[in-house]
Design brief:
Shape: globular
Helix content: over 70%
Number of strands: 0
Structural class: mainly alpha
Radius of gyration: 24 Å
Number of domains: 2
Order of helices and strands: HHHHHHHHHHHHHHHHH
Length: about 450
C-alpha cells in the first residue's frame, strides 16, 4: 500500500513559505539596523528613495505576471502549460527591458527631483532588474506547482549575502558607499536567479511559438492586480517621495524611520486578514451578509485590542524606541512617530474592509477606495508639507486615513449594515475574555501550588 504523503507535503511547503517570510523580515530589519547607524540621514534618505522607486517597478512586474501565471497554470489543462509559460516569459522579458530602459532614461529626472546621488543607483538597478527576470519567472512557476523550496532558497541567497556584506562593512567600520551597495545587489540577484532556475527546472515547459491569445489573457487578468498594487505602494510611499522633492532627502530619511516603526502594526493586521478571508467567504455562503458583517466587526475589534497597547507604549516611550532602533541622530523622528503611530488605529478598518469586499465579490469597490486614498494623500501631503514642513507629511497622511475611514465605513454600512460602534464592543469583549482567562489560570496555579505537599 502506497503511503499518503499529502500531509507531510503541505507541512513542508508551509514551513518553507513561513521561514522565507520570517527570514526576509529578519534580514531586512538587520540591514536597516546597520545602515541607519552607518549612514547620515541625507544618505539614508537617498537610499530609501532609491528603494521606493525599485519597489514600484517590482510590484508592477509581479502584479502583471505572478497572479495571472499562477492562476492560469493551476486552472488550465497541462496541454496549455507550454503556451502559458512562453507567453508569461515573453511578457516578463518585454516588461523588464522596458523598465530597464525607463530607469536609465528617467534617472536624471529623479536626480533633479531628489538628489544627484540617486542617478548611478538607478542605472545600476537597471541591470539588477534584468538579472532578476529568471528568478521571478522561476519562482512564479514553482509557486504554481506548489513547490516552495526554490522560492525559499533563492530569496535567502538574494537577501542573505547582502545582509552579511553590510554586516562586514559595519563591523570593520568601513565606509558604506551607496553605489557599492547597489552593485552588490546585482551579484546577489545572480545567486538568487541561479538557485531559482535550478529548482524550477523540472517544471519548465515552454512552447516554441508565442501564443498571442494567451498574452492577451494574461494581461487582461494581471492589469487589475497591477492597478491595485500600484495604488497601494504609491499610497504608502508618496509622503516620503514628496518630502524628498519638497524639502530634502534627509527629511525623507527621518520620516521613513517613523513609518518603518509604524509599519510593525501591519504584522497582526495582515496576518489576521489571511485568516479572515476564507472564513468570511464561508460566512457569506452559509449566513449571508449578516455573517460577513459580524465577522468584520469582530476581526477589527480583535486586532484593535492587540494594537492599542502597543500604540500607547510607543506614544509614551517614543525616544526609547528611536534610540534602540536608530540612535541619537534620529531623535528628530520622535514627534513624527507620535503622529504616524496613530495610523495603526485605522489600518484594521481598511485592511479588513478589503478582505470582506473581495470575499463577497466586490473587489472593484476596494480598488476605488484605495485610489481615493492615494489621490487624497497627494493633495493633503502637498498642503500640509507646504504649511508645516516634515511634520506636515505625518499630518497629511493621518488626515487621509481619517477621511477614507469615514468614507469606507459609510460604504460598509450601505453594503453590509456594519455598525462601527460594534467594533469597540467586540474589542472590550476581547479584553474581558483575556482577563477572565488570566484569572482562571491564576486560580488554577494557586490551587495547584496549595495542593502540593511540602517536603
Amino acid at each position: 500500500m502506497q503511503k499518503d504523503n499529502t500531509k507531510s507535503y503541505w507541512l513542508v511547503s508551509g514551513l518553507y513559505a513561513f521561514f522565507e517570510r520570517g527570514a526576509s523580515y529578519l534580514f531586512g530589519f538587520g540591514t536597516l539596523f546597520m545602515l541607519i547607524r552607518a549612514l547620515d540621514p541625507d544618505n539614508w534618505g537617498v537610499w530609501i528613495l532609491f528603494l521606493a522607486v525599485c519597489a514600484l517597478l517590482e510590484v508592477t512586474r509581479m502584479g502583471l505576471i505572478q497572479n495571472a501565471l499562477v492562476k492560469s497554470l493551476s486552472a488550465e489543462e497541462e496541454s496549455e502549460h507550454g503556451k502559458i509559460n512562453t507567453a508569461s516569459l515573453f511578457l516578463n522579458v518585454a516588461l523588464t527591458i522596458l523598465f530597464a530602459f525607463l530607469l536609465y532614461l528617467l534617472a536624471p529626472f529623479f536626480g533633479n527631483l531628489w538628489d544627484q546621488r540617486i542617478i548611478p543607483l538607478l542605472h545600476i538597478y537597471a541591470l539588477t532588474t534584468l538579472v532578476l527576470t529568471p528568478m521571478y519567472q522561476s519562482n512564479f512557476i514553482s509557486q504554481a506547482n506548489l513547490s516552495f523550496k526554490g522560492i525559499f532558497l533563492s530569496n535567502m541567497l538574494r537577501q542573505g549575502p547582502f545582509f552579511f556584506f553590510v554586516l562586514y562593512l559595519w563591523l570593520l567600520d568601513k565606509p558604506i558607499i551607496l553605489a557599492e551597495l547597489a552593485q552588490f545587489q546585482v551579484f546577489a540577484a545572480f545567486l538568487g536567479s541561479g538557485i531559482a532556475v535550478y529548482h524550477a527546472w523540472p517544471f519548465f515547459n515552454f512552447s516554441k511559438k508565442i501564443d498571442w491569445g494567451w498574452i492577451k489573457k494574461l494581461i487582461d487578468f494581471g492589469k487589475y492586480a497591477v492597478s491595485t498594487n500600484l495604488s497601494v505602494i504609491l499610497y504608502k510611499n508618496m509622503d516620503k517621495m514628496m518630502l524628498g522633492g519638497m524639502i530634502s532627502t534627509a527629511s525623507a530619511g527621518i520620516y521613513d524611520l517613523a513609518i518603518r516603526i509604524t509599519n510593525l502594526m501591519e504584522i497582526p493586521t495582515f496576518s489576521a486578514a489571511s485568516v479572515v478571508f476564507p472564513q468570511s467567504a464561508r460566512e457569506m455562503a452559509t449566513k449571508g451578509k449578516e455573517g460577513v458583517k459580524k465577522m468584520y466587526e469582530q476581526s477589527v475589534g480583535g486586532i484593535l485590542a492587540l494594537l492599542i497597547p502597543i500604540i500607547l507604549f510607543i506614544e509614551i516611550f517614543p525616544e526609547f524606541i528611536i534610540l534602540i532602533i536608530a540612535g541619537e541622530q534620529y531623535l528628530p523622528a520622535v514627534p513624527l512617530l507620535r503622529i504616524t503611530i496613530l495610523f495603526g488605529l485605522f489600518l484594521p478598518f481598511g485592511s479588513q474592509m478589503g478582505t470582506v469586499l473581495e470575499s463577497i465579490g466586490k473587489p472593484n469597490i476596494n480598488f476605488y477606495c484605495t485610489l481615493l486614498g492615494f489621490t487624497l494623500n497627494i493633495i493633503f501631503n502637498y498642503l500640509f508639507i507646504s504649511w508645516l514642513g516634515i511634520t506636515g507629511a505625518a499630518y497629511g497622511t493621518l488626515t487621509t486615513y481619517i477621511v477614507t475611514f469615514v468614507v469606507t465605513q459609510i460604504i460598509l454600512y450601505k453594503i453590509l449594515k456594519v455598525n462601527t460602534l460594534n467594533v469597540f464592543k467586540y474589542m472590550w469583549e476581547f479584553y474581558q475574555k483575556g482577563f477572565d482567562m488570566m484569572k482562571e489560570k491564576m486560580v488554577a496555579f494557586t490551587q495547584k501550588s496549595s495542593a502540593t505537599p511540602s517536603v
